[in-house]
Amino acid sequence: MNSPPPLRVASLDDTLIERSAPVSGAVADGAVGVAFPRAGEGRSTTATGKRLFAEAIQVAAPGLAQAIVDESDWRHRYPAHLRAQVELMFDKPEETVAIARRGLDTVYRSFEFCRDGAAMPLDLALRAPCAERLYTVTVAGHGKEAPRLEVPYRGERLAGSALVAQLHHWVERGIAEPSFAAAIEAVVARPEWLDLSDWNIAVLGAGAQLNPLATLASWRATLIAVDVPDPKLWHRLIGIARAGNGRVRIPVREGSSADDPRLAELAGADLLTATPQIRNWLVSMPEPLAIGCFAYLDGEAHVRLAVAMDALIADLAALRRNVVPVFLLTPTDCYAVPAPAAERAVNNWAARGAQRVWQEPLRWASRDRLLTPNVQRVLDGPDGFRAGIVDALVLEQGPNYALAKRLQQWRALVARADGLRVSAKVAPITRTQSVLRHRAMRAAYAGAHLFDVEVFEPETASVLMAALLVHDLRIGNGAAVPGAVLAHPLQLFMEGALHSGLWTLPFAPRSALPVAALRGAFS
Fold this sequence. Notes:
Mean pLDDT: 92
Radius of gyration: 23 Å
Strand content: 5-15%
């Protein structure tokens, strides 16, 4: 078999992309911890992102790979290239896992870990001798209540039949997939599943708004909390731990105890700069071990954070088999979506009725940039598998955000193919502080109801996602289980999706966002 032609990077110095691991050496730019690879005199996030996406598909589609390398306006045109990759994976299911594996391999041949003025490949740095260590303090909860699934929603706490009714309402509106409702209903029907005293769950980004720590702390889980040193943050997390009915293991930088008044000041470890210490600490944790990736930072730091979390999962999975990677995937990404959802989007476009009066002129005046169709048609894939392609990427979030979230998809695909149970669920659009800091996104969320897109509050989304995690840990057959047969590898991301309506929307989400933002700005 002929090798694919080498990629040429005209945007850098027109030299061949290096295919070897970075050489350990001195760091002259002051980088510390997980770092983008060096390119000339700096560390280019654009060049790295393009390289990762291009290398991932180089074998399967050399022409598409070269188009990425040649793209001169990556910041604004990356969605088209990411869509092409999803279409490629849909058309070639036999290449899907290989694409993901190749993308991750490129990460570890690219990213460095910088410490004490020297750099080395990240995967080697995790296992290199490290003088610093983390100690463990276990905070036991005082709660005695039995685990119970209650979802806070619009001033109520939904449980039992009321929760099931709301699940069906979301499905009827096209806010969630039927498989999402079925998964939560299974948890409602089996309340004993909620007792997670037999599970250890690492929460990477324990202080993030959209993480299940507070919920799982009331479901008797043993939680392993990881977040940056920040006394205010750890005071809050310790309070959550004590109020729960489980246990929370906390990393501390020197020996301490649960009743030490300095505990919050001693707690925490930075995923970006203390990655080897965190790795060594996690290795000491018992099985079974689920590892949830919930940490978030803005811009290029989000990519480095995603790489750090992925490195921890990859290393732990290589050492033991009873590891479960856990991801909350963003709805604002490009996906192959189930045929019924795609058909609904097509039908919603055709059934706009009187709304065409104002929508078509706006579409025409914007030269097809506003209110364009979400799904052109349902695609017939290999072996009769049918799906649509929904591109919900948001330019305001940028290519670094898209890359960070794509790394999670790649790891989920590879981990499942390697025989691991995986929980990788599309979470809803959520009104988190990180999103609301951006004026345009805040306005778009305020106007989302114009298109029957539902924006969830963090407390609602986090409980629902925790319930989905319980389903994925307990279920004997389904997308999360490696032995279960899927019609297509991408079905992993279709099952249990709570996409807020982006998959059934008549309009391409990016083309509706400015209209929603305009409406929201006035409301």
